[in-house]
Q: What sequence folds into this?
């Protein structure tokens, strides 16, 4: 009975290392964000986060984020096909911001297709 105790300890320590390694492989980032059509929905193919967080979409005014247009929760790890419904349609480019633990950890400008195209 005591002979199996060291083996159990080794297995438990090994599984803890695997979980830690999996958490460390993710970075806080956006994948490639294609131009959006301004229909009130922002679609981001991939968002990776080290911890649970939220993607927020802001209007941009003179390079400053001014008005929060929408947000969507994401979980730790890879989040595919993230869709953020906007409270009002975006008329010009917006900024996607990833917030984790109350801090902005990634930001990316999102191009909005102009209506004159």
A:
């Amino acid at each position: 009975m005591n002979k199996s105790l060291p083996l159990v300890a080794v297995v438990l320590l090994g599984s803890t290392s695997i979980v830690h390694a999996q958490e460390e492989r993710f970075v806080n980032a956006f994948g490639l964000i294609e131009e959006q059509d301004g229909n009130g929905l922002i679609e981001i193919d991939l968002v990776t986060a080290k911890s649970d967080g939220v993607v927020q979409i802001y209007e941009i005014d003179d390079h400053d984020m001014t008005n929060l247009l929408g947000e969507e929760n994401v979980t730790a790890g890879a989040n595919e096909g993230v869709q953020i419904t906007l409270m009002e349609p975006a008329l010009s480019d917006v900024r996607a911001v990833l917030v984790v633990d109350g801090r902005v950890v990634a930001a990316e400008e999102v191009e909005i297709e102009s209506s004159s195209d």
